[in-house]
Amino acid sequence: MAQDTAGPGDDRMNFPFVGIPTFLRSPIETDLSKLDADIAVLGVPTDEGSPFMGGSRLAPRSIREHSMRLYAPNGYWEIESEKRFLGPEMQNKRIVDCGDVDVLPTAVERTFDNITRDVKGILDAGAMPVVIGGDHAITFGVVRAYPEDQPLWVIHFDAHLDYAPFIHDLRFTNAHAFRMITPLPHVQQIIQAGIRSLRTREELVAESRDDGNAVFSMGDFRKTGPEGLAQRVPKDARVFVSIDIDALDISLVPGCVSAEPNGMTYAELRDTLQAIARHAEVVGFDFVEVNPLLDVATGVTSYLGAHTMVEFLGAICDQPRWREKHPE
Ligand SMILES: [Mn+2]
């Protein structure tokens, strides 16, 4: 039985600064063989794949802490839609925090084996993995854990292509993840959206496209729109979504080392994530590249990360296909 962190009794105020910070004040289960959850949150506190400035290893803790501000025991109510989201998930404690992958600094391949093992453990328990990085290198270890006999589409939000060539045997940096993911046998196609960095190399875009992936610059993304982007994967396809916070505009993300101008507004990213949730079957997502060491003192980038994750979860669980599989 997962350990509750909300404290006993129904009359507690549970202010955000009170209590052990788990994601959305969820109960804890670190023994994945005992996991009983619909949604399993897993931290991957590694930033060894960050060649410029480290610090994203501290994001799982920071995003958990800021997610406590969004905790609502009966789910959250959203004024635009006048709807409540995550009601059954919160009331029945179907979101469980599984703690963090064990990270072995300087033994990156063993860290990645641990990532894959833990995500597999979550999938074997029948829960949907929600993974908090860490830098973007981790996504390879996560996507590798999905079963090889079930076709999977990957939608990747990012300012950068993360498709660097394997030079000097570099494979596990945050610039390599999607070149590592492309040849995985279950991965059908990667849709890369928001690409705009002036550091983007022409030949790497061509290589990603030649490898079968779809690359959307910011202009392409805006022309295509949320529904159009979602429809780049087949209806009801199994989709893993990888969100680099630098997909959002530089003005929104002071706590991100790789921020770039001319990025997505929050509404553009949110609306696209919601369109994906309606159109396809989201079977997991990760959220990466928040760097709390660079953030302003309010922790606004961690808060934005928690906010994006919670709203995406709300959209996923609001779908008829989710409710069929997870009756209240
Ligand atoms: Mn990235």
Structure overview:
The protein is α/β, with parallel strands linked by helices. The protein has one domain (23-325): Ureohydrolase domain (Arginase, Chain A). It is built from 10 helices and 10 strands. Strand 2 (76-78) and strand 3 (83-85) form a beta hairpin. The radius of gyration is 18 Å and the shape is globular. The two termini are 19 Å apart. The model has no long low-confidence stretch (mean pLDDT 97). It binds manganese (II) ion. The site of manganese (II) ion has 6 residues, from loops.
Which features characterize this protein?
328 residues, Arginase, Chain A, binds manganese (II) ion
- What is the CATH topology classification name? Arginase, Chain A
> What's the CATH C level?
Alpha Beta
- Report the sheet with the most strands, covering strand number, pairing sense and barrel closure: 8 strands, parallel
Bound heterogens, unique? manganese (II) ion
End-to-end separation: 19 Å
Structural class estimated from helices and strands: alpha/beta
Strand arrangement, largest sheet?
Answer: 4-1-5-10-9-6-7-8
Instruction: Give the number of helices.
Output: 10
Strand percentage: 15-25%
- Cα radius of gyration in angstroms: 18 Å
The H/E string reads EHEEHEHEHEHEHEHEHEHH
Low-pLDDT parts are none
Backbone shape: globular
Number of strands: 10
Helix content: 25-40%
| The CATH H-level homologous superfamily | Ureohydrolase domain
How many domains make up the 3D coordinates? Answer: 1
Arithmetic mean of pLDDT: 97
